[in-house]
Amino acid sequence: MNITEYFKEKAALVDKWLDRLLPSESETPSILHQAMRYSVFAGGKRLRPILTIATGEIFGAGEHELLPAACSLEMIHTYSLIHDDLPAMDNDDLRRGRSTNHVVYGEAMAILAGDALLTQAFRTLADYQSTNAENKVRVISEIGKAAGTTRALIGGQVLDIQSEGEILTGHQLEEIHRAKTGALISCAVRIGAIIGGANENELKALTDYGEKAGLSFQVADDLLDETATSEELGKTAGKDAAKQKATYTTHYGIDGARKMADRLSQEAIFATGAIGRDARILQEIARFIVERRS
Predict the structure, then answer these.
(1) Which residues, 6+ apart, have CB-to-CB distance to 85 below 8 Å?
(2) Max intra-chain CA distance, the chain
(3) What is the domain-level CATH number for residue 89?
């Protein structure tokens, strides 16, 4: 199976589980549940849940443990996008090729839809049946940390906002994106490994893979923001430049950023060699991250 077919198959599986795990549109309060589903099912690559699935499958983990954890990451990721697009944040009107949540449902409902998706993610994690209670608690803790404030999603968003219009060093730029983008991607790999019962050496190698893949994703995103159209991206192209945000392309130039993305991808691939298992699918995902066009 090639990587395109793999993503298509696993994304369909993720969507099936998301449909099962989210409240239906008709359930009260219906407007909120419609807003939640509007953004969750707007499309997207499903990279984070697919990384969890791909890593877990390397260790023989089953669907009924992997998918709730994987879907919780997609709920958290989608909530972060809804809030990121709000007028108080990036003030964007296009996401995944559709009008952003607040444009359709209003700011108040968009805020609540994001809040509800975050809450639903942890309810999903609490409710799923696990064969190893200790690993389940560890997974919940991992996701809580990655979605939090210290070298994590929200903390990275804070640094990103504070850095607008500032000239940053390469280290400062990396600090933002290891947190804002990289934390959930690295977490996706780690929780798949934990659910699958990876040992500490295997987990260390996969953490290295996840960190390199997470950074390469952001560098590739910055390149796409400069070189792709809004139609290709499904979101507003050039918005980082308009907001005077520090990016890898503004700091290193387009050629320098391309070389960095390729280097990080190769380092991620190299890290899988220490796992001692067939990790070809993770290697293909690392390549896909830097070769994608959206």
Answers:
(1) 91, 92, 93, 95, 100, 101, 102, 110
(2) 51
(3) 1.10.600.10
Burial (CB count <10 Å: 0-12, 13-18, 19+), residue 167: exposed
- Residues of the domain holding 62: 3-291
8 Å CB contact between 80 and 181:
no
Task: Say which residues have a Cβ less than 8 Å from residue 206's Cβ, sequence separation at least 6.
Answer: 55, 189, 190, 193, 198, 271, 272, 275
**Separation between Cα atoms, residue 198 and residue 55, nearest integer Å:** 10
> Does residue 210 contact residue 186 with C-beta atoms inside 8 Å?
yes
Q: Give the pLDDT confidence of 136-169 residue by residue, as tens digits.
A: 999 999 999 999 999 999 999 999 999 998 999 9
**Tens digit of each residue's pLDDT (9 = 90 or more) over 185-243:** 999 999 999 999 999 999 999 999 999 999 999 999 999 998 888 777 777 777 776 67
Domain count, the chain: 1
Q: 220 exposed, middle or buried (CB, 10 Å; 0-12, 13-18, 19+)?
A: buried
| Secondary structure class of 99 (helix, strand, coil) | strand
Q: What is the DSSP letter of 166?
A: -
Radius of gyration of the chain (CA): 18
Beta bridge partners of 99: 94
Q: Is the separation of the CB atoms in 157 and 235 below 8 Å? A: no
Q: Helices (DSSP H) in 85-181: which residue ranges?
A: 101-105, 107-127, 133-146, 153-162, 170-180
Q: Rounded to the nearest 5°, which phi and psi values hold at 98?
A: -130, 165
Query: Taking the alpha carbons of 255, 3, 228, 233 in that order, is the dihedral positive or negative?
Result: negative
